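Dear Dr. H.,

I hope your travels went smoothly. While you were away I took the liberty of generating a structure for the chain from your last submission, since the lab meeting agenda had it listed for discussion. I wanted you to have the full record in hand beforehand rather than looking at slides cold. The sequence, exactly as received, is reproduced here:
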Amino acid sequence: MSPQRILVVGGGHVGLYAALRLSRKLGRNDAEVTIVDPQPHMTYQPFLPEAAAGSISPRHSVVPLRRELKKCRVLSGEVTNINHAKRTATVMPITGPARDVEYDQIVIVPGSVSRTLPIPGLRENAVGFKTIGEAIYLRNKVLDQLDVAATTADPEVRRRALTFVFVGGGYAGIEALAEMEDMARDALRYYPELSATDMHWVLIEASKRILPEVGADLGAYTVVQLTKRGMDVRLGTTLDSCVDGIVRLSDGDSFAADTIVWTAGVKASPLLVHTDLPRDSKGRLTCLPTLQVVDEASRVVPGAWSAGDCAAVPDLTATEPGVMCAPNAQHAVRQAKVLADNIVALIFGRAVHQYRHKYAGSVASLGLHKGVAQVYGIKLRGFPAWIMHRTYHVSRIPSWNRRLRVVVDWTLALVLKREVVSMGELHEPREPFTEVTPEARSAAPAATTPSPSAASEPSVTRRA
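The corresponding predicted structure, in token form, is as follows:
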């Protein structure tokens, strides 16, 4: 029997872990594993806030696919269409024409994208917080704004530069807000012109609570801690508009801000629209607890698997029927293991198993030495929770290489001051070069009927 062709679409949490486990459990005579992703790395998103704040190097929050997946075939490109009826996926490489990749088993795990709304000015003025590029941009943006505020003599420009708005009170929003405020407050030691009271940090959350995963009491504790640090927490409030950087809220307030960060949830990858596989009302692939894709009649679609943010996987531990697993890294990593094991079992004719998650708890950082955690029913606050947060996530990031590098970063941070320099030029690297390079002058049009003498002489470029 020829080896099974397994195609993994997406190199995120599920994609990397599933491909790694498949490559370890299957020999070359059993299967050929191919993984496709536009980026050459997997981003460990729980470390994005610390990467943005300078607690760890941004490079250490990503895992190179080719280094970890030595037994897999890695394609750098984007899957634009999946025709499961024909068992083919169309891949658009970085350069060159699209190509069709055939498969026997497909693992569709492209993850999620920011769930945005058609709010006036949002597209033009806000930034998300899901990629390493967005994290680096936000870090540079905040530090640039400190420079703007310290230099200007206009109080309105200063007030606008030092106003930072975060929309969304989940993990991403709270951790990004807390880490960036901590970093900016630390950086103020180098800005004698500014004080902490000059900064205006605003959190906008549509519901009446934040961090629902850690419980109502720890969520309330977090609000109190953020408020004590001078942050403006607006619960039960929505962003109505941010045209030209003028933030208008549903509570009637409005103010100018140069930094607006959108962290209000995620939705399934748009790639799923370009497949012939069944989806639910939220655009996710419908799955069984075995991570197999199923149709409207709950019949298994042979050869199709999914997990993570883009999959609607029933939560077998929920007390109410119809509850799906939450789109978080904890589920993604554990589902990847079950998914890979089930593919291996199917190839060797063994029974597949259901994904049943035993809730371990939730942890969240609120800046350096601060956090909240609920682990196996035990609730922690402050420094112990912060230690638990770091311990858990350093154990979850793939690769001992990355774990060691992160620990070294943290160790150095104990004795060295935090780096608070902006490298905003990274976002426009060619601008200094293009500014000093003159435009080439176009040559005069050649004569339609050159004279014999002109034809025999060397051509001459005429300058205007």
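Two observations you may find useful: Residues 451-464 have pLDDT under 50 and may be disordered. The chain is about 30% helix and 25% strand.

With kind regards,
E. W.
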